[in-house]
């Protein structure tokens, strides 16, 4: 029996798929990264379209472009889509594409779970967005506050789509968090100690830890809201002793770490890009690591700054106010470290580094308004106005999206073997940068003038018209920038793959020591890491390749599997069953998922080996 | 390279940690339990926030019968001890002994579940339903989540026993046994908190 198993592992009996089936069954982190990029990009376009519609509605006072109801649906879906289905998957795309390469590993710790995480995210997002076609769209805001989101005030299936769509997508995120933590702890190449890890790897490590401890809180919140809505429980029903403030606490205990889950990876990307294109070691590496950990730690104890006007009392408000302001300290450390990295560097202005450099002042502006909002008495004035909208778009678009753009331009050749067009890239940067500041800078002042957020229109003669017009023009510019980016991607994908191993020539980390795109097994021989910026160190000593840490030999690979896809379809069907009270569908869908789990447990994955003679010629560690 | 070549007699002392896959699985599972801690922590918080809001329903002092809950607690604690013995037997490569302890584990787990179902049934007949009050909703959600974890654990360990019969103890099956034991201890620890926070605190006010 066991001899057979060993034989099966060495013989090439494993079915390898082609075409569509290859993508549905893949467990390769590089392909899963591309899947995340496509799906996240698609949801980014949907969310962006919703944003444009919102801005068209607000282009002039008393506009009738969309109805008030539709406007509520648009803002809810825009926020939910952008946070959960666009920003996070795009980050997951980059971390899948890059992290195993940066730590010198052949794959993540759990390739199967990685695929499962992608498919549950995808089907959760699909479930949420199908609501547009069923006519029941979530419309209680992305925070879904009760009692507005309670069955009394949100009849129909709208909020149910929010609850179940996010629940399913959240499973995928949690699996990803666990997977990347385990990968970074257990799979680093020999010699790569924690304090030699690239900054992007460090931020993903910390972000994954935040995911592991924050997402289950959202899970419970969504379960409680689902029980209230579907099974008439009383978590948030005040008449039966429930508490609306409880939802606010649960949501923000998750929601605030979520903000750092989003921004920390962007910090990591910016660190890599700034360092590479300044041709300098990252300034203050260890203080960067320390600042990242500190931000994550503080990120868990500031949630109530979203609730200053809830009425928690002056003591609570004061404590959360001070804790929030404290976060400015490690963030400031990071800003100065980037500036000192740039200082005296021989800077190359590529599209990636432009986004990186544009990030710094933009994010500082978002940080400054953050400290303003952290002051509880002042927050009573800013609360629920466009000032808040301006603030969080400065940190999420100006911070995170700039980071994602920088990362896409930077790692595109590693993911696809082709360099994006630099001219089109620079057009994207300048259009997006100008459009972004046009859209959101004026919104600070709209807020200070008292324009409330989440309201579908405004009256004439209040001094709001001009700035709203400017804001809408800016949004259209950002839309144009996105279209230029899509053209860039289309043009680039028609070209022949031309990227060298180290296309920027100044690559510092391990991913630039292997071909673009890397072979299925990444490293023919696992490299030996001899210091921080491992690849740069070897290059400076005149070496053309990393020193291998193992002799060449057959490489063991995990088998592809369709089960992650089927499991996610099961959850998707089950979600529908719960939304429309069809118990057999709900249970049937869950049964499909559980049966797949059983199959996965019973049938061992022996994987297969890529023998030495099948490995690519000339590919060395 | 292959993880399947070890014959039974040549298994290392801790077969669960013999391969990178095994070590990954154990680490990943600990991280998963970290997430579970946050999950139950939130359920406990919600329960603590709502437990005094009993509405028109019966009070916890009236509902809870400590002797039965104490018996359930003892059963689950003993069950956890059985899974310790199972892992110790695994380290000594005594497969039959290990399976025996695992069977004892799930039998006690089933006894616990039976008591819990009986308990919930009694409560419902006394007018303490999911929809009665905020207290009842958060009670059933917290204790029910725990119960669902026990039920899942029973099915899981049951499946592992069948796998041991079919595949024997190998460096592939050993990590599965090991993580299921960690899982079982975790559920046990959660129950200790439920016993304290829900039942004892409910009884004294």
Summary?
Chain A is mainly alpha-helical and 621 residues long. Chain A has 19 helices and two strands.
Structure description:
The complex is a heterodimer of chains A (621) and B (205). With 621 residues, chain A is mainly α. Chain A has a single domain, classed as Cytochrome c oxidase-like, subunit I domain (Cytochrome C Oxidase, Chain A, Up-down Bundle), CATH 1.20.210.10. Chain A has helices at 2-10, 19-25, 29-57, 68-102, 111-134, 158-186, 199-230, 244-278, 285-299, 314-326, 328-342, 351-374, 376-382, 386-416, 422-448, 465-494, 534-540, 563-579, 583-602; strands at 555-557, 608-610. A two-stranded antiparallel ribbon of chain A has the order 1-2. In chain A, helix 7 runs antiparallel to helix 8. Chain A is globular, with a radius of gyration of 25 Å. Chain B is built from six helices and no strands. With 205 residues, chain B is mainly alpha-helical. Chain B has helices at 20-50, 60-63, 66-91, 95-125, 134-167, 173-204. Chain B is 77% helix and 0% strand. Chain B is elongated, with a radius of gyration of 19 Å. Chain B has a single domain, classed as Up-down Bundle (Four Helix Bundle (Hemerythrin (Met), subunit A)), CATH 1.20.120.80. In chain B, helix 1 runs antiparallel to helix 5 (134-167), helix 1 (20-50) packs parallel to helix 6 (173-204) and helix 5 packs antiparallel against helix 6. Chain B starts with 19 loop residues before the first helix and ends with a helix. Chains A and B meet through helix 1, helix 6, helix 7, helix 8 and helix 19 of A and helix 1 and helix 5 of B.
């Amino acid at each position: 029996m066991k001899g057979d198993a060993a034989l099966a592992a060495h013989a090439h009996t494993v079915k390898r798929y082609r075409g569509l089936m290859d993508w549905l069954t893949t467990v390769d982190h590089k392909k899963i990264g591309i899947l995340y990029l496509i799906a996240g990009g698609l949801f980014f376009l949907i969310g962006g379209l919703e944003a444009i519609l919102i801005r068209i509605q607000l282009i002039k006072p008393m506009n009738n472009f969309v109805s008030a109801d539709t406007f509520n649906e648009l803002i809810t879906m825009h926020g939910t889509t952008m946070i959960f289905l666009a920003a996070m998957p795009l980050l997951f795309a980059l971390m899948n594409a890059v992290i195993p390469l940066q730590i010198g590993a052949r794959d993540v710790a759990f390739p199967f779970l990685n695929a499962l995480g992608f498919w549950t995210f995808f089907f959760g997002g699909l479930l949420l967005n199908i609501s547009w076609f069923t006519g029941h769209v979530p419309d209680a805001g992305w925070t879904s506050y009760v009692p507005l989101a309670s069955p009394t005030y949100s009849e129909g299936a709208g909020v149910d789509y929010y609850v179940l769509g996010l629940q399913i997508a959240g499973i995928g995120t949690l699996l990803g968090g666990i997977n990347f933590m385990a990968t970074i702890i257990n799979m680093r190449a020999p010699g790569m100690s924690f304090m030699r890890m690239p900054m992007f790897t460090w931020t993903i490590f910390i972000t994954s830890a935040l995911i592991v401890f924050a997402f289950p809180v959202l899970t419970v919140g969504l379960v409680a809201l689902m029980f209230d809505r579907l099974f008439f429980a009383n978590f948030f029903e005040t008449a039966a002793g429930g508490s609306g403030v409880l939802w606010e606490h649960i949501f923000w205990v998750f929601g605030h770490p979520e903000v750092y889950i989003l921004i920390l990876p962007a910090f990591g990307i910016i660190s890599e890009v700034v360092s590479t294109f300044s041709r300098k070691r990252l300034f203050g590496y260890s203080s960067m690591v320390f600042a990242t950990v500190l931000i994550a730690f503080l990120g868990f104890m500031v949630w109530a700054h979203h609730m200053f006007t809830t009425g928690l009392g002056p003591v609570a408000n004061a404590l959360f106010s001070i804790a929030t302001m404290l976060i400015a300290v490690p963030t400031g450390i990071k800003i100065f470290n980037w500036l000192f990295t740039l200082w005296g560097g021989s800077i190359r202005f590529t599209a990636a580094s432009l986004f990186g450099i544009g990030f710094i002042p933009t994010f500082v502006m978002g940080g400054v308004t953050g400290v303003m909002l952290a002051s509880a008495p002042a927050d009573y004035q800013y609360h629920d106005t466009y000032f808040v909208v301006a603030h969080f778009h400065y940190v999420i678009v100006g911070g995170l999206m700039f980071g994602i753009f920088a990362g896409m331009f930077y790692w595109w050749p590693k993911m696809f073997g082709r360099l994006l067009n630099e001219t089109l890239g620079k057009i994207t940067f300048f259009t997006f940068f100008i459009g972004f500041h046009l859209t959101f800078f004026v919104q600070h002042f709209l807020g200070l003038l008292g324009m409330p957020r989440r309201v579908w229109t405004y009256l004439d003669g209040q001094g709001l018209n001009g700035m709203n017009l400017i804001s809408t023009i800016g949004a259209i510019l950002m839309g144009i920038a996105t279209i230029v980016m899509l053209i860039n991607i289309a043009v680039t994908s028609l070209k022949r793959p031309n990227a060298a191993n180290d296309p920027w020539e100044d690559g510092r980390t391990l991913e630039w020591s292997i071909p673009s795109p890397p072979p299925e097994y990444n490293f023919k021989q696992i490299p030996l890491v001899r210091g921080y910026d491992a690849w740069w160190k070897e290059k400076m000593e005149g070496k053309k390749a990393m020193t291998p840490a193992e002799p060449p030999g057959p490489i063991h690979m995990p088998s592809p599997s369709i089960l992650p896809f089927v499991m996610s379809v099961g959850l998707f069907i089950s979600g529908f069953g719960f939304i429309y009270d069809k118990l057999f569908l709900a249970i049937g869908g869950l049964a499909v998922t559980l049966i797949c789990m059983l199959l996965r447990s019973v049938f061992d994955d022996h994987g297969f080996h890529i023998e030495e003679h099948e490995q690519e010629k000339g590919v060395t560690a | 390279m292959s993880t399947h070549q070890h014959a039974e007699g040549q298994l290392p002392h801790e077969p669960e940690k013999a391969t990178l896959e095994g070590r990954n699985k154990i680490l990943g599972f600990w991280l998963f339990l970290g997430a579970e801690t946050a999950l139950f922590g939130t359920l406990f918080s919600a329960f603590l926030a709502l437990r005094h809001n009993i509405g028109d329903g019966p009070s916890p002092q009236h509902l809870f019968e400590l002797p039965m809950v104490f018996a359930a607690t003892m059963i689950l604690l003993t069950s956890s001890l059985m899974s310790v013995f199972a892992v110790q037997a695994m380290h000594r490569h005594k497969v039959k002994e290990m399976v025996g302890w695992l069977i004892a584990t799930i039998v006690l787990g089933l006894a616990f579940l039976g008591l819990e179902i009986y308990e919930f049934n009694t409560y419902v007949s006394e007018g303490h339903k999911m929809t009665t009050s905020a207290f009842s909703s958060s009670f059933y959600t917290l204790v029910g989540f725990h119960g669902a974890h026990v039920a899942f654990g029973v099915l899981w360990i049951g499946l592992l026993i069948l796998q041991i019969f079919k595949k024997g103890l190998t460096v592939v099956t050993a990590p599965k046994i090991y993580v299921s034991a960690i899982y079982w201890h975790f559920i046990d620890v959660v129950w200790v908190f439920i016993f304290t926070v829900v039942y004892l605190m409910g009884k004294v006010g």
